[in-house]
Amino acid sequence: MGTIISPLFVTWNTRSSRPGRAPHLRGCIGNFSPMPLHEGLAEYALISAFNDSRFRKIEKSELESLECGISLLTDFEDGESYLDWTIGVHGIYITFPHPSLLPSSSEAPSPLSSGGTAPPLKAKHTFSATYLPDVIPDQGWDKIEAVDSAIHKAGWSGRITEDLRRGIKLRRYQSRKCTVGWDDYIRWRKGQELKQ
């Protein structure tokens, strides 16, 4: 069997102590560049556990209440617009320039342009964010709510306008996901010990 190479994300969740309740996000980081599965999994399991700036580091005492999900990202396609994707099927990766660099849909010329064109974009003027395919239905968002949330996740704190949405470059993708809990890991570990 050959080496599996894929973009991937590793997600840590805290399982709810109440039956029927959804788990709570504890960390999620990944990479859109294809990488060998064994390397990417080891690297991003640690990065998402200890370096997700939204959360404190995972501690040993939490392990029994956690589950770990691995999403292998597949089927990347450019969307025709910010609405060209399907909830429950696609994840979204959006990039957009700073709104001051977007052409306005109004008749008035932009104060930034002299000849009707915006200045060239630089990396520091570009925002980006992603949501994995399962996040959007889990949150109960429609497409516009998901895109607007991704805009805020990317770091934009200003007003969201239709011009801003239309300035988005959207890539949609799918994923193959596997989730395991602490009990699954212990069973696997015991099986490995028996083989030795």
Automatic annotation (TrEMBL):
Taxonomic superkingdom: Eukaryota
Stored Pfam families: AMMECR1
Sequence ranges assigned to domain AMMECR1 in this UniProt record: 1-189
InterPro entries: AMMECR1, AMMECR1_dom_sf, AMMECR1_domain, AMMECR1_N
Coiled-coil parts of chain: none
PANTHER family listed in its UniProt record: AMME SYNDROME CANDIDATE GENE 1 PROTEIN, AMMECR1 HOMOLOG
Name this polypeptide is given: AMMECR1 domain-containing protein
Organism field: Candolleomyces eurysporus
